[in-house]
From TrEMBL, chain A:
Listed transmembrane segments: 58-82, 213-232, 239-256, 297-322, 423-443, 455-473
A single GO cellular-component term on record: plasma membrane
Keyword terms: Cell membrane, Membrane, Transmembrane, Transmembrane helix, Transport
Taxonomic lineage from the root: Bacteria, Pseudomonadati, Pseudomonadota, Gammaproteobacteria, Oceanospirillales
Highest taxon, organism lineage: Bacteria
PANTHER family in UniProt: ABC TRANSPORT SYSTEM PERMEASE PROTEIN P69 (PTHR30043:SF1), PHOSPHONATES TRANSPORT SYSTEM PERMEASE PROTEIN (PTHR30043)
Subcellular location(s) of the protein: Cell membrane
Name this protein carries in UniProt: Phosphonate transport system permease protein
Membrane topology, as annotated: Multi-pass membrane protein
Record InterPro entries: MetI-like_sf (IPR035906)
Main localization (coarse): membrane
Automatic annotation (TrEMBL), chain B:
Keywords attached to this entry: ATP-binding, Nucleotide-binding, Translocase, Transport
Domain ABC transporter: 4-216
Keyword Repeat attached: no
Name the record gives this protein: Phosphonate transport system ATP-binding protein
InterPro entries: AAA+_ATPase, ABC_transporter-like_ATP-bd, P-loop_NTPase
Top-level taxon of the source organism: Bacteria
Length: 491, 217
């Protein structure tokens, strides 16, 4: 029997992941991992809200950074979207979104320091690249007829606003609101590199072993994201956007001489700075590539492939918990809550927590990536399954799962998984900052050693790999003819 | 005001010629009805005319109407005159329209019988209501020539006559693709019959009867 292309690709990915699994390091090195997990769970059950001051402060900063960052990103993204037909705008957007928020934060930390500008730009820049692409697609999808019937001499701006933006408006708004949720997660995670958001307090609480404070912070974070649709109202948005810049805090003052030196000297490759010529530059680059970039790339790809397959397995196993074909009202609710918690927790935060519990290896990273991404894909596939109509005498239980559901959902499932491939890779690279030897680890080390030129080259390499995987995933989707409904949920 | 003339015009779909070559002149005061079986080339001729003449002062009411579903009835009508105002005024109008514009547009909407829907998004309207919004838009737009494709196909008896009267009075010239022969004869001064992409009939309407036109079908 000849294997179908989807089966072939699936098997290929599984075999590749198994090979990677054999090559990677998956040891639990912590002293007593179960005790730590128990402590954390206890902290979640008995959260300590007593440090209300710092808690509300952390919350406020998290929201403020998210609003200002996403707001600026959306504005800039719209401007880019309007000239998206130019190739250099598309390339530029692809490039800025290929670099993760945390990398941007690391870059700006070295120049602007612990100033709010660092956090705001770290969110705004990559988000602008994403907004540009999605906004441009949404504007392209509008009906061209209203534009045709407009008076010919109407101004370009008026035409644009009345005939294109107005049509796309509901999509633009709902996507931007969705991105705001992503922005809250990004903002929380920026705390891990020193911004005054939830991540910072989480790290501090862990360091001091205050598990009940950790529990409180996590619960407040879930509450913040879970209630988003009640407090983020289109009418209130302008108010939030106006107020948010004043709630960022002051941070440390910007040293402009630092900024100038960073961009004019620090990031220039050392041999060029010292005027040693092209041969020396090549030598420098070759060294960097062989000793840091290559191992980093290797580990990043290894981890990505394992995490991708683990994500897929988890998503296929979990989508029934929110599918009406498998659950009743109450169990469906419980399933929803579970998936919300899974997908609301940023990978970085999860990986940080698991690293504390299990000690450094690839295991926490894979589990964190699989839980977060699996939660998202399970949610989307489950929702898709709810659109299916089964005949009344359809089989039940496992037979229903294997005969009625999976065959119908496998195509969309694969499409979604390939969409997340690039995102998983982005995240894998970044998890290196936590000490797993992916690209982020080498970037972070270079920054610790104050070798910003190396850090920049490594970040550029990461961005290029991101773009490469994105292209590959698009090819694969084309080859498998996976048509997707418009899915832009990607953070 | 130049005349509107097509000379040996053709339209192609891929390699096949679907229309023409045909010539036609629309003089001031003429109200032309295009009639013919579906597929005879009425819509093709209208869009060809729009293509050729759009540099002149032409308003178009296509069969699909071209409304923006997410905007209100008022704003869809206002779009007819986007070219008369600077961009910032159009932008402000999106959030808060001028009283003067509201009065003028609501008067127009009242004439076609949907004044009370002025602030409803077009996406919420029925087919007949949408058609009247599009009619109000071209009435508001004004110009030297109106090109309309089945402008009253979704309206019933008296309402159809009423909107037809408004449309034909609102422009010094008009070309309307019609399938209702009675309406065409009642409101147009000239009937142009199309068959397989060619003009097979071109006569003043007072010389024709609805029975005579049946031959075209």
């Amino acid at each position: 029997m000849a294997l179908r292309p989807t089966t072939l690709v699936t098997l290929g990915f599984i075999v590749l992941a198994l090979v990677c699994l054999a090559l990677g390091d998956f040891e639990i090195s912590a002293h007593d991992p179960w005790r730590s997990i128990g402590q954390l769970l206890l902290g979640l059950i008995q959260p300590d809200f007593s440090s209300v001051d710092s808690l509300s402060q952390a919350l406020l900063r998290t929201v403020a950074f998210a609003f200002v960052g996403v707001g600026l990103g959306a504005g800039a993204g719209m401007l880019l979207a309007l000239c998206f037909h130019r190739w250099w705008v598309r390339t530029f957007s692809a490039f800025i979104r290929a670099i993760h928020e945390l990398f941007w934060a690391l870059i700006f930390l070295q120049s602007f320091g612990l100033h709010p500008v660092t956090g705001v730009l770290a969110i705004a820049i990559p988000y602008a690249g994403i907004f540009a692409k999605v906004y441009a697609e949404m504007l392209d999808e509008t009906d061209p007829l209203p534009l045709d019937v407009l008076p010919r001499r109407a101004g370009r701006f008026s035409k644009l606003v009345y005939a294109r933006i107005s049509q796309a408006w509901p999509h633009l708004v709902s996507y931007t609101a969705y991105r705001l949720e992503c922005g809250l997660r990004s903002s929380a995670v920026l705390g891990f590199v020193g911004m005054p958001t939830i991540g910072y307090h989480l790290m501090a609480a862990f360091a001091q072993g205050h598990y009940s404070t950790v529990g409180a912070l996590l619960l407040v974070f879930y509450l913040l994201i879970g209630t988003l649709r009640w407090w983020v109202r289109p009418r209130l948005l302008p108010v939030y956007l106006l107020v948010a810049p004043f709630l960022l805090g002051t941070g440390l003052p910007i040293m402009w001489s630092n900024v100038a030196r960073f961009f004019s000297e620090d990031i220039v490759p050392a041999p060029l700075r010292r005027g040693e010529g092209l041969a020396a530059l090549w030598e420098w680059f070759a060294q960097l590539f062989m000793n840091q970039a290559l191992p980093g790339i290797w580990n990043t790809l290894l981890l990505t492939q394992i995490a991708l397959v683990a994500t897929g397995v988890l998503a296929l196993a979990l989508f029934p918990v929110i599918s009406r074909h498998f659950t009743g009202r109450a169990s469906g609710m419980a399933g929803h809550v579970m998936l919300v918690v899974m997908r609301s927790t940023p990978e970085y935060m999860l990986a940080f927590i698991l690293l504390q519990l299990w000690g450094p290896s690839m295991l926490p990273a894979v589990v964190a990536l699989a839980l977060h991404n699996g939660g998202i894909i399970a949610h989307l596939v489950g929702r898709r399954s709810n659109e299916l109509q089964l005949r009344q005498d359809a089989p039940r239980g496992v037979d229903r799962y294997t005969y009625e559901m999976v065959p119908r959902l496998y195509g969309p499932f694969l499409a979604l998984l390939f969409y997340r491939w690039e995102i998983i890779l982005r995240e894998t690279a970044i998890l290196g900052i936590l000490g797993i030897a992916t690209l982020g680890f080498y970037v972070d080390s270079a920054i610790q050693e104050i070798r910003f030129d190396r850090a920049m080259v490594l970040i550029l390499i990461t961005a290029l790999i991101n773009i490469g995987v994105d292209v590959l995933a698009r090819r694969l989707r084309g080859y498998l003819r996976l048509r997707h409904g418009v899915n832009r949920q990607q953070c | 005001m130049s005349d509107f003339v097509l000379k040996d015009a053709e339209a192609h779909y891929g390699a096949t010629r679907v229309l023409g070559p045909l010539s036609i002149r629309i003089a001031a005061g003429e109200r032309v009805a295009l009639i013919g079986k579906s597929g005879a080339g009425k819509s093709t001729l209208l869009s060809l005319m729009f293509d050729r003449w759009q540099a002149q002062n032409v308003a178009l009411m296509p069969q699909a109407l071209g409304l923006v579903d997410t905007l209100s009835v008022f704003h869809n009508v206002y779009m007819g005159r986007l070219d008369r105002h600077p961009w910032w005024r159009n932008l402000v109008t999106l959030a808060r329209p001028w009283r003067r514009d509201i009065d003028e547009i609501v008067a127009l909407l009242d004439e076609v019988g949907i004044g009370e829907k002025r602030w409803a998004p077009c996406g919420e309207l029925s087919g007949g209501q949408r058609q009247r919004v599009a009619a109000a838009r071209v009435l508001y737009q004004q110009g030297d020539l109106l090109l309309a494709d089945e402008p009253v196909s979704a309206l019933d008896g008296p309402q159809a006559s009423h909107v037809m009267a408004k449309l034909t009075q609102g422009y010094p010239r008009s070309v309307l693709a019609m399938h209702d022969l009675e309406l065409a004869l009642a409101f147009c001064t000239r009937i142009v019959g199309l068959k397989e992409g060619a003009i097979v009939l071109d006569a003043p309407s007072e010389t024709l009867s609805s029975a005579a036109l049946q031959d075209l079908y």
